[in-house]
């Protein structure tokens, strides 16, 4: 039995992993198994140092025979199995450290943030959803709301980290495996202990900074308040009076909560001292002196409030008059706003009007803000700013509405100024539908305004006109069709390659939609007749007639051909269709093909009888 270990493994923390050195991975060339295999090879290579006496032997040393010894092969395999078994036990020993994985994988800043918001520490894998709007956190099926931690919750959390530190301190630094392998965990333990102390110190440091910053803020507040309420105020010094009233209001607001603040800071200091945290002497002095100074400040504020009572009553009367005057100014401005704001679609330079009205609103808003602040200080009813708020609200809506109006106008102007035959009217229709959707997304308050209704009507009119004009882009439409349109509408007009879309829209053809559909339908029929006539010309222009000589005379007779008869019958069907669809412009051309096919067939049969 070995009294001293033969090999050593070291466990180290290399975040985010706990690693062994040498490695226990089977594919690693520097692993423990590779090290043992190297030792075995070195033992066998010793046999190469002993030369053979027989010079005629194939090998000059005994290594080959040693490697082929069955008992040695069995011993090597047994040694590898022992190494494998020891590696399994080392992996099991590592599990003791892996249960603290959260200490080096979790973000301390994020954990502190959650603790300060929700009063508890939540594992990262337990958080399902964070609703940032409502400030709720979903942990499993439980909903957590924002609830800052109390000093008791801080104590519980610090105690939990302290327990972890004690657990890590008590971990073994060395483990013997099978007597011959030593597992050294000192480095892993030291790293883990350092991280555990950092978690514990994180909360202590926050509390230390909180106590120090809170006391400093209180001292600054008390200093400024003492200085502010000690200032002498003249009866006509309104600015000085407002400053003093502001200090008195701050004292009144903090009066209820200040005693709880001092007690909370004392409890926090006592808790930190139980964990051995040393405080600066200045912090202890502040905590002893500031409560007495706060009591004195309250007393001085009460005396100053009595001294300023006559001045305050006078200013209250003046302030009420200003509040009434401000409300009247808002009412008059509301009336001007309704008259001058660009609510109409035919408004010229709407942005200039909005800028002028905005300047007046800014001035009124500043006045209203000043009066509200003064009303709070003197405890007077605040002026009503409902009319001004309504004007501001409608001004923002008007700005959004006119942005869309200008976007629509500029976009359509670019399309309307281009030759209409080169336009992709389908793309233009899609763009108009997009504008209509943008218009519908505006606030419902805008739908009663003339500017909204005007834009809505313009988009509808454009869409209706485009649906008609898209049909007139058909290749069946010829010059005489445009002539028919101009005669029907009573508007002289000529269409060429340079005709713009705006010019066609001026004809307002969407108001004569039935007429347009009639002409487009007629043009389609004419194109169909043209195609049939063209096919007849090609077919009969390529047919060659054959003649036979009469048996009793030299008179040539037309040769009877079944294919010719079939072609003639097919063309007869096409001719009947042309008669049904026949338009005035193609009437003469259709009649050229009108000779009776039945007469031709009888004539051909008679010729056949004669030949027979």
TrEMBL record:
The keyword Magnesium does not apply. The keyword Oxidoreductase does not apply. Keywords: ATP-binding, Coiled coil, Cytoplasm, Cytoskeleton, Dynein, Microtubule, Motor protein, Nucleotide-binding, Repeat. SUPFAM superfamilies: Spectrin repeat. InterPro entries: DHC (IPR026983), Dynein_heavy_linker (IPR013602). GO terms for cellular component: dynein complex; microtubule. This is Dynein heavy chain linker domain-containing protein.
């Amino acid at each position: 039995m070995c009294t001293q270990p033969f090999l050593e493994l070291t466990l180290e923390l290399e975040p985010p992993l706990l690693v062994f050195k040498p490695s226990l991975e089977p594919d690693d060339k520097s692993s423990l198994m590779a090290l043992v295999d190297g030792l075995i090879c070195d033992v066998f290579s010793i046999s190469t140092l002993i030369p053979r006496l027989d010079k005629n032997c194939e090998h000059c040393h005994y290594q080959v025979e040693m490697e082929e010894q069955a008992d040695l092969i069995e011993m090597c395999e047994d040694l590898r199995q022992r190494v494998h078994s020891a590696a399994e036990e080392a992996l099991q020993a590592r599990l003791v450290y892996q249960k603290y994985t959260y200490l080096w994988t979790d973000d301390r800043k994020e954990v502190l943030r959650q603790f300060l918001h929700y009063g508890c520490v939540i594992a990262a894998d337990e958080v399902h959803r964070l609703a940032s709007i409502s400030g709720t956190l979903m942990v499993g099926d439980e909903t957590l709301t924002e609830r800052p931690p109390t000093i008791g919750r801080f104590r519980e959390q610090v105690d939990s980290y302290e327990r972890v530190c004690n657990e890590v301190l008590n971990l073994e630094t060395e483990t013997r495996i099978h007597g011959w392998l030593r597992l050294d965990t000192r480095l892993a333990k030291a790293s883990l202990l350092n991280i555990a102390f950092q978690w514990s110190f994180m909360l202590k440091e926050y509390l230390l900074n909180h106590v120090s910053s809170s006391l400093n803020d209180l001292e600054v507040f008390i200093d400024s308040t003492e200085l502010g309420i000690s200032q002498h105020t003249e009866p006509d010094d309104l600015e000085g009076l407002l400053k003093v009233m502001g200090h008195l209001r701050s004292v009144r607001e903090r009066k209820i909560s200040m005693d709880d603040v001092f007690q909370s800071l004392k409890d926090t200091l006592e808790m930190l001292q139980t964990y051995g945290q040393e405080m600066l002497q200045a912090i202890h002095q502040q905590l002893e002196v500031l409560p007495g100074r706060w009591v004195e400040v309250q007393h001085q504020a009460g005396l100053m409030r009595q001294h300023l009572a006559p001045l305050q009553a006078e200013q209250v009367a003046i302030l009420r008059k200003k509040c009434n005057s401000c409300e009247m100014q808002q009412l008059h401005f509301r009336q001007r706003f309704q008259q001058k704001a660009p609510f109409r679609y035919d408004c010229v330079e709407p942005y200039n009007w909005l800028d002028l009205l905005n300047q007046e609103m800014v001035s009124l808003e500043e006045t209203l803000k000043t009066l509200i602040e003064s009303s709070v200080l003197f405890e007077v009813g605040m002026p009503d700013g409902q009319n001004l708020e309504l004007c501001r609200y409608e001004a923002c809506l008007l700005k959004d509405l006119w942005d869309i109006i200008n976007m629509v106008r500029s976009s359509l102007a670019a399309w309307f100024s281009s030759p209409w035959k080169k336009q992709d009217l389908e793309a233009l229709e899609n763009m108009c539908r997009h504008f209509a959707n943008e218009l519908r997304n505006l606030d419902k308050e805008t739908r009663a305004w003339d500017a909204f209704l005007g834009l809505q009507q313009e988009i509808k009119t454009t869409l209706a006109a485009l649906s008609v004009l898209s049909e007139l882009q058909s290749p069946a439409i010829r010059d005489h069709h445009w002539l028919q349109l101009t005669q029907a509408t009573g508007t002289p007009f000529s269409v060429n390659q340079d005709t713009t879309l705006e010019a066609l829209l001026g004809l307002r053809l969407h108001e004569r939609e039935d007429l347009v559909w009639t002409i487009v339908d007629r043009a389609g029929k004419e194109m169909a007749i043209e195609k049939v006539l063209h096919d007849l010309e090609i077919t009969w222009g390529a047919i060659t007639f054959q003649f036979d000589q009469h048996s009793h005379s030299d008179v040539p007779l037309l040769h009877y051909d079944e294919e010719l008869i079939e072609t003639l019958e097919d063309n007869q069907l096409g001719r009947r269709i042309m008669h049904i669809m026949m338009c005035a412009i193609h009437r003469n051309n259709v009649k050229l093909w009108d000779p009776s096919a039945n007469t031709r067939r009888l004539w051909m049969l008679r010729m056949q009888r004669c030949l027979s």
